[in-house]
Amino acid sequence: MKVDDLIAKYNLPTPRYTSYPPANYFHERFTEEDFRKTIAASNQLSPEHLSFYIHIPFCPQLCYYCGCNSYPMEKKNVVEAYMNAVKAEIRTVLPLLDKKRKIAQIHYGGGTPTAIPLHFLKEINEMLLSTFGCIDKPEIAIECHPGYLTAKHWLELVEAGFNRCSIGVQDFNETVLKIANRRPSLLPLEEIIELLRTNDISINMDFIYGLPGQTVESFSQTISRAVELKPDRLVTFSYAHVPWINKNQLILEKAGLPKTEDKSKMYSHTVETMGSHGYVPIGLDHFVLPNDSLNIALRNGMLHRNFQGYCTRETTGQVYAFGVTAISQLSAAYSQNTRSIPQYIAAVNQGLSPS
Q1: What's the pLDDT tens digit per position in 266-289?
Q2: Which pTM was predicted?
Q3: Where is the signal peptide (predicted)?
Q4: What CATH number is given to the structural domain containing 116?
């Protein structure tokens, strides 16, 4: 069977490959008591390291392609109430965890974590890092939308303790970004990268292929420019067209999505370009430099993946997640919080688990 025929045969929407069983097998029979018992039991299970995830759901402007659990930016008082609830949820879980365990990862996702006042992020980092010790070189990472960050904001992230920033570029072609309702970077990427590298911050750059307005040639130009900036890691996400989940994607459908064969070529050209510039493929969509810890782990059979993404066995931890829709990935169970922001805040304020 030809490659194009195989792609056509298996080009079907399926649950994400980040977990097994996948999210469509989750159910509501897992009670609050079950959750607390599972957290307590996790202290005796492996992996023993701690991995924390904090979900910030707000976005100043919703990108049409987004399949994440994102919501339009709320008023200042709602954002403050939400962040206070996140801190309260964390305070209910930390006493259940063995203080001898060490933090391997802290990760902020969204939404747009960098769209809220950044002092909230610093406060949460301080709360976690003052409670537990850390492994050598823990990963404290955040997903960043460069469309809203000044140089002052980037420095605030440094001061908050982050050592890895994932910059959501998506495409250098501003016509593509406009169609997708995404703001381009506020600062030149060169300036951002210089600032972060000066402060010893590892740099990820994220891209999406399969969007309206993209061609094989235009996306190849985007990737060529990206490798010139030489990020530590580069990710090329395949656009997932699921308008039954995100109706905004119908706007992209009307704008005209690239053909399947063109999308396949975008990926194959990316693999070729990354390889010619010394990057090594990790899994389906990640590329890293040869001396990256992920590549070393891959060669040694120590590569792992959790809800935070690819990681080494050294940084692997059970994931304790906070915020709306956040999924805790414990050795004995998965548990996901409610989707509703008002319900989440109300439950936490009543001292209940928001799952």
Answers
A1: 999 999 999 999 999 998 889 999
A2: 0.93
A3: none
A4: 3.20.20.70
